[in-house]
Specification:
It is a single chain. This protein is of the alpha+beta class and about 725 residues long. Among the domains are: about 80 residues; about 120 residues, Flavocytochrome C3, Chain A, domain 1 (Alpha-Beta Complex); about 150 residues, Methane Monooxygenase Hydroxylase, Chain G, domain 1, CATH 1.20.58.100. It is about 35% helix and about 15% strand. It contains 19 helices and 24 strands. A five-stranded parallel β-sheet has the order 10-6-5-14-22. A five-stranded antiparallel β-sheet has the order 16-20-19-17-18. It has a four-stranded antiparallel β-sheet with strand order 1-2-3-4, covered by helices on one side. The protein is globular. The mean pLDDT is about 95.
Length: about 725
């Protein structure tokens, strides 16, 4: 290779390069050189020294025949294509035995000198269980943290509604539980579509979570000997779910909030209330901050940091009616997706089997009843179709305890995806109960006769009271009516073992990432993942990343930041100026209905193709005929409009992903792929991978990247709960 040649003579133009970087911020910033090889000349591109994985790239084996200025333009095009189309998914899973991976990995991580930690700043978006625990821990370590929530307090996070409990492999019952069994149950429950290494780490850390929360004063239930009490949840034959009287999520959130509040008092965490992220700032291929909108006065601002952590939960509200808090959305993750972050497994949605059925067309939310009820409640429907008698008048031999009949081993404690699908089948075949025929019974008569009403009340009293307040029926006397509803989403932004997305410096934790459950989540594992990521995993991994970075403040005058600010302002102004005839909720309800009917508990090729076209029509209606009254100042309708814009695109990507995956697994049930017994029929040969989607403005043309899943510790078998 010869010496460097004057690159200007081959068409190099610094101004053209700056424009290229501004328009293609997914390309890491570097420098061009012309080098001679043999008799020809080639454009070389070298990444900047502060870029992770610095490598010299040959933009293309393009031999110049003359000094045409077009050669540099062509080199830019090739460079763009290289980074657009050749994303390589590196899970960065550590080598070595499964049981030692996390311990060894922590030892091998880069460390930040305690005195230097105060020089770094991290942004955390979302202050639920995952976000609040991450903020608290990073603050305790000495980092400066900016925390953002669209609520006025972290105590308003959706996690507060989690009723059932949190899993851990303590084995207090001595019933055969272990870290490996929790790992195995999670892999199996997710229908073998999760990374072994991530899942084992989660199971391993689970015991630490309980100790952490006890130390914070979380009032877990205790048994007579003083040990923490626990119970069973779906998908497991052991008792490993720890719970607090009332709502477990509420108590865990208060524990995390207390730790967060301490760091706020010490000025290590700065809390930004009623502030929503609307974009991520990407400079030189790295996440360097966020663009936010103040929900009270409409101010759009930029915030810069050395790392960005997204902890904004799931996207179940794409269905409009779900068990999620009404404000839960996908915006933070979706805006990162638009900037180059891959969105993984979007079609993996969980339908929760124990929800209060829809009662009217005017509902905006569905009420979740804890899965813990399935420990003592028995699920049944009348054997006779259309039998609308009082359940007390239906004799035992006229009842079909269908879960116990089909799954004698697990019975009512089959995983959520299985229980939900069977409930739908019962209702579709005419055995449903209630006015709509879209409910099954959850009956506690046996438990009350066996244990006594006072014992049942001690376990489930708050849930029974809630049910009575909502429905007007007393579950101590009459069976509950339940029906499946959209609950948890296993998809999310793709992350590696270190919880970092393919965008350097962008970490994603809790339900916002894709990784730890697979195609279905075991009950009580959501809280487990959120706290594991926030307290134990993210702080280590963020520190490992920051140790490779020089702390520096990006100027708010940076052209990319200014462009991002301008784009955000243009979007909201555009929304306000449409002045159409449909409300945001009108369009969102239509989207939700389409999603439930065609991308809900069961999908097929015809329906998925149909929904793609129908959502395209909805998008046109939204951008041309939505009506958003008011202005930028405190405008909830404008908030919802921004979120619906993302849901419309996400809905299409969910359908695209479901179309691509020609198999059934967990929460993804394609009607074309089922066993003779109507169970999910996986295709491990062709689909044992993570679907990681690259954004395209035309969602139907989104590019698929695949991360192969290797199973070394678990044998791939057909799930059986019989």
């Amino acid at each position: 290779m010869g010496n460097n040649i004057v690159k200007e003579s081959f068409g190099y133009n610094a101004s053209l390069l700056d424009t290229f970087f501004n328009k293609n911020d997914f390309v890491p910033k570097g420098t061009f050189q012309i080098k001679k090889r043999g008799s020809g000349y080639y454009w070389y591109y070298t990444l900047s020294t502060n870029t992770t994985g610095r490598v010299k790239y040959l933009s293309k084996a393009f031999e110049l025949k003359d000094n045409s200025e077009n050669s540099f333009t062509l080199a830019l095009d090739v460079l763009k294509e290289k980074f657009q189309n050749n994303i390589k998914l590196q899970s960065n899973e550590p080598e070595g035995p499964l049981t030692d991976k996390w311990t060894n990995h922590k030892f091998s991580m880069n460390l930040v000198n305690p005195a230097n930690k105060r020089k770094y700043k991290a942004i955390v978006v979302g202050t639920g269980l995952a976000g609040a625990s991450a903020c608290a821990t990073l603050g305790e370590l000495g980092y400066n943290v900016d925390a953002f929530s669209f609520h006025e307090s972290p105590r308003r996070a959706h996690s507060i509604a989690a009723q059932g409990g949190i899993n851990a492999a303590k084995n207090y019952r001595n019933d055969g539980d272990s870290i490996f069994r929790l790992f195995y149950d999670t892999i199996k429950g997710g229908d073998y579509r999760a990374r072994e290494a991530n899942v084992y780490r989660l199971a391993e850390i689970s015991n630490n979570i309980i100790d952490q929360c006890v130390a914070q004063g979380v009032p877990f239930a205790r048994e007579y000997g003083g040990l923490l009490d626990n119970r069973s949840f779906g998908g497991a034959q052991v008792s490993r779910t720890f719970y607090a009287r009332g709502q477990t999520g509420q108590q865990l959130l208060l524990g995390a909030y207390s730790a967060l509040a301490r760091q706020m008092h010490l000025k290590k965490v700065r809390f930004h209330q009623r502030t929503e992220m609307v974009d991520v700032i990407v400079i030189d291929g790295q996440a360097k901050g966020i663009i936010t909108r103040n929900l009270l006065d409409g101010t759009i601002e930029a915030h810069v940091a050395d790392a960005v952590i997204l902890a904004t939960g799931g996207y179940g509200n794409v269905f409009y009616l779900s068990t999620n808090a009404m404000a839960s959305n996908v915006t933070a993750c979706w805006r990162a997706h638009r900037k180059g972050a891959l969105f993984a497994n979007p079609s993996f949605c969980q339908i929760h089997p124990t929800c209060i059925p829809v009662s009217s067309d005017h509902q905006s939310k569905l009420t979740l009843m804890s899965e813990s009820l399935r420990n003592d409640g028995r699920v049944w429907v009348p054997k006779q179709k259309g039998d609308n008698r009082n359940p007390k008048d239906i004799s035992e031999d006229e009842r079909d305890y269908y879960l116990e009949r089909i799954y004698p081993s697990f019975g009512n404690l089959v995983p959520r995806d299985v229980a939900s699908r069977r409930a739908k089948e019962m209702c579709d075949s005419g055995h449903g109960v209630g006015e709509t025929g879209l409910a099954v019974y959850l009956d506690f008569e046996d438990a009350i006769n066996r244990l006594g009403e006072s014992a049942v009340a001690a376990k489930y009293g708050n849930l029974f009271d809630m049910y009575k307040q909502i429905t007007g029926e007393n579950p101590y006397e009459t069976p509950m009516k339940i029906y499946p509803a959209i609950h948890y989403t296993m998809g999310g932004l793709w992350v590696d073992y270190n919880l970092m997305s393919n965008l350097s410096g962008l970490f994603v934790i809790g339900e916002a990432n894709f990784s730890d459950h697979g195609a279905n989540r075991l009950g009580a594992s959501a809280l487990m993942q959120g706290l594991a990521d926030g307290y134990f995993v993210a702080p280590n991994c963020v520190g490992n990343y920051l140790a490779t970075q020089q702390p520096h403040n990006i100027s708010l005058d940076h052209p990319i930041i200014q462009e991002d600010l301008n784009n955000a302002k243009l979007f909201f102004n555009k929304m306000l100026n449409i002045k159409g005839q449909f409300s945001v909720d009108d369009i969102h309800k239509k989207l939700g209905r389409l999603m439930w009917d065609y991308v809900g508990m069961a999908r097929n090729e015809k329906g998925l193709k149909y929904v793609l076209d129908e959502i395209e029509i909805l998008k046109e209606q939204f951008y041309n005929d939505v009506n958003i009254p008011g202005d930028q100042v405190f405008n909830p309708e404008l908030e919802k409009a921004g979120r619906l814009a993302d849901f419309l695109e996400l809905g299409q990507l969910m359908a695209v992903d479901a179309l691509t995956r020609n198999e059934s697994c967990g929460g993804h049930f394609r009607e074309e792929y089922q066993t003779a017994e109507n169970e999910a029929l996986r295709n491990d040969k062709d689909f044992a991978f993570v679907s990681a989607w690259e954004h395209n403005p035309d969602i139907k043309k989104s590019k698929l990247h695949k991360e192969k899943l290797d199973f070394k510790e678990v044998k791939l078998t057909s799930r059986s709960y019989k």
